[in-house]
Amino acid sequence: MMKFERYEWVAITIMISLFIFVGFIQGWSVSLVILNMCIISAIMTMGVNISWGYAGVINFGVMGFLAMGGLAAVLVSYPPIAESWQVGGRGLGISFALLFVLVIAVMYINKTVIQKRNRYILNSLIIFFGILIIRHFYLNATHNIEDVNPAIAGFLGGLGLPIIFSWIVGGLFAAGVAFVIGKVALGLRSDYLAIVTLGISEIVVSVLKHEEWLSRGVKNVIGLKRPVPYEIDLQNADWFINLVTYLNSSKLNNIIDVSDRQQVLNNLIIDGSGIFVKLSYAILFLIVMLIIFYFANKAQLSPWGRMMRAIRDNETAANAMGKDVVKQHLIIFVIGAAIVGVAGAMLVTLDGLFTPSGYRPLRFTFIIWIMVIVGGSGNNLGAIFGGFVIWFSWIEAAPLTTFIINQLTIGLEPTNALKLHLLDSVPYFRYLFMGLILLLILRYRPKGIIPEKVRHS
Amino acid sequence: MIDFLNSIIVLLNFIIIPGISYGSQLALGALGVTFVYAILRFANFAHGEIMSFGAMITILFTWYFQSQNIGLGILPTALLALPVGIIATIILCIISDKFVFQYYRYQKSVPVVLAMVSIGVMFVINAIIRIIIGTETIKFSDGQKFIMKAKQFKVMTGLNEGLALKSSQVITILITILLLTFTFWFLQKTKTGKSMRAFSDNEDLALLSGINPDRVVFTTWIIVGVLACVAGTLYGLDKSYKPIIYLNLVLPIFASAIVGGIGSPFGAVVGGYVIAFSEIMVTYAYKKFFVYLLPSSIEPTGLVQLLSTDYKFAVSFSILVIVLLIRPSGIFKGRVL
Lengths: 457, 337
Prior knowledge:
The complex is a heterodimer of chains A (457) and B (337).
Chain A: H1 6-26, H2 28-55, H3 62-77, H4 82-112, H5 116-147, H6 166-185, H7 190-210, H8 212-215, H9 231-236, H10 238-247, H11 249-253, H12 258-301, H13 303-313, H14 315-320, H15 325-351, H16 361-375, H17 380-408, H18 417-424, H19 429-444
Helix pairs in contact in A: 1-2, 1-17, 2-12, 2-15, 2-16, 2-17, 3-6, 3-7, 3-15, 4-5, 6-15, 10-12, 12-13, 16-17, 16-19, 17-19
Chain B: H1 2-40, H2 47-67, H3 78-107, H4 111-133, E1 146-148, H5 150-157, E2 165-166, H6 167-189, H7 191-201, H8 203-208, H9 213-238, H10 243-260, H11 265-283, H12 287-293, H13 312-326
Antiparallel strand pairs in B: 1-2
Helix pairs in contact in B: 1-6, 1-9, 1-10, 1-11, 1-12, 2-3, 2-4, 2-9, 2-10, 3-4, 3-9, 6-7, 6-9, 7-9, 10-11, 10-13, 11-13
């Protein structure tokens, strides 16, 4: 079982007290909103940390894997649209079957044709004409699908299952994409791998943005079903009203007037229902986070984890010991991506909507990397800590900056142009903070706040 | 014959001229990335923001000159402000090197750490730009907008198709030729340029021959500053200035540098044009072109477009992946990755 050092307990205490602090200052609802995003960020960070911290495989495709997880949430939970399947299902089926045949043909050519030049010519010919034929079926089918009731549908819909299943499916989707990327790109030097994964994730997102038959594209998918109760149902449920009455009984008993008391109770119920929903999310997310944390730690301490560290620290030596470096790199890249995919599905579950155009590299790739570096690569608790602290400062940067600017410009008149301009640019100061935090950590604590433990066993 | 000329004009107007000007901007950007890679040996994610910073300073001074009624007549005022922007960009580069990159260079950090550091720098510059100038789209080109309008061309030649020539495109192409000539002359003929090439080729040998590494790095940042500021300003002049665009521009720039052969300046320039032309050619609808060229009986009915314009961005990366698969060292053999 894992044991925490003293400084790790300090880190855990800091994380918990941050939320209690916000709870008292800004209200429990705000605190829980931040907590939920913190947990999701922590899961993403663990995913990146597994490939980067354990094995030194860089993964800048976070955004793409998150988007795949989000797509999974849509495809699993949205009710199927029968009409779309009717008009376009067969065309899509044919085009995908043809695509499969094309891939087989290319593989066959690669196997049988020895001469390199002939292989290239033959391959490009068959791919060109193959795509021409596939396009014909494909464009017809997608066009028909997108014409089905475009205001509310216009895509294939999903399976109509509970959204919670999508957390696993999201992981599988991301793993599938990661497998393809890994096959192509792993083996490049680390900084080129970073650029290539960043680029491929951009391609993944642009496909989700523009293939409307699949994901509704920029029209977004809204109204995904929740795994937790809705506020309005809670407010009418007897057990919930009783619970709120019970919890606040002392406060309510002090109010003598009956109508006043009802008024206060109603307000409490409305507040309480919001907090209850967020709390249920937090508990669900926390369970997932702890499961992943447990297994990630187990894996790190296992012989497999030791092999990964050996590969990270000296690839050539590990190779000489008979370890298949390429294969292990691919495995760990896929595992890391799968965890990010799970986080992506959870993110869409929390929001209840899927907006492909919201996936931007600055927000969903680079921030996650700052979390990993700041938390401490190679340490799972560090990853969680990084996720919590960075997301927390990302959110709280704006109120803090407003406060600081107001303090600094206290001598200036409220209509002073500089002051107004600075107050207008408050949202951008968070980028400054993020950059400075990253630079300071890299300079003065390059192993992160909670560094990897060196094990001699 | 007329039809043939018309079809050529269509190509010129919609593919070749935009391709050359966009390619020039990418080439200048990729050349800057290549310099950092070849001398300082890391992938500089902050390059797009450096370009953006240069363009921002140029815009600020353009506004200042405009308010003072100083202008260049038919030429955009931005050209007058460009030298100021260049100087500011060089200062930015040197400050970021002194305070950030230098430490890791002396530590002999691995390239990926330096790449992470450059992400930190990217965030800081990004924030500074947004705090100073905001996130709105800014158009700052003034002077005469067109050298030749489509209508003028039609009247002049009597053809059906017009050929529009924006002055920003011509300026882009001219400045690029000037700057590239100067850069390559500098690398090939001057002593500093030669020492830079030596340093890039074999650092230990260069140090042994008495080349001062700090001086080489200093010169590199000056060149990077000039290239970045000019590329950023030209891009802003041609399209329009918007901070977020420059963040997205980093990816095609990296793609150009890698496709051309990372570490090879000539390769970076070629890579820029390759990426620009493929982005435009793959997403252009060729219907008009074929309508002129083919007899009316076999005219195409569709748009004859390989990919929809939505995928413009994805094209550069697909090319990057294909090149890495077939020829990992790029078109012109750079360092093998």
